[in-house]
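subagent[fold] <- orchestrator: predict structure for attached chain, return tokens only, no commentary.
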Amino acid sequence: MDKIELKPQKGSVKNRTRKGRGNSSGHGGECGRGHKGQRSRSGFSQMSGFEGGQMPLYRRIPKKNGFFNFNRKEVVAFNLEYISEICKTSGVSEIDLRDFLSKTQKSTGALVKVLGNGELSGGLSIIADRFSKTAISKIASSKGKAEVIK
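subagent[fold] -> orchestrator:
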């Protein structure tokens, strides 16, 4: 049979230190714990985060209040009276509210919802992401069109 000559790499295996076995061992006397004090005693355990009596970091930092919903979609609401005002001043019969919002407020990615507050004069074609039920009925009664952006 062949002799197997597998050995661990040099320096990877270290001998266990035997503390408290005389001064000649290098770990006699205080066994590497220093002189006296709480940390030199047997059974010492310290609370995690303890900073020697100083106010610990986890208590110095303020608590975060509230909840941030990262799935939230920002929705900008437009009332019918505001839309009719815009159309009267500009003289258009069709309005895309998302384009209007990006030109005026530089707000991109926000959804636009039309609410039914106010009256609509003339047959306006309104393009938006969402419409309330009252807004749809008022637009239909004024012979207008409510188009939903897909």
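orchestrator: received. Logging for downstream: The mean pLDDT is 89. The beta strands are 75-79, 94-96, 111-115, 125-128, 130-131, 145-148.
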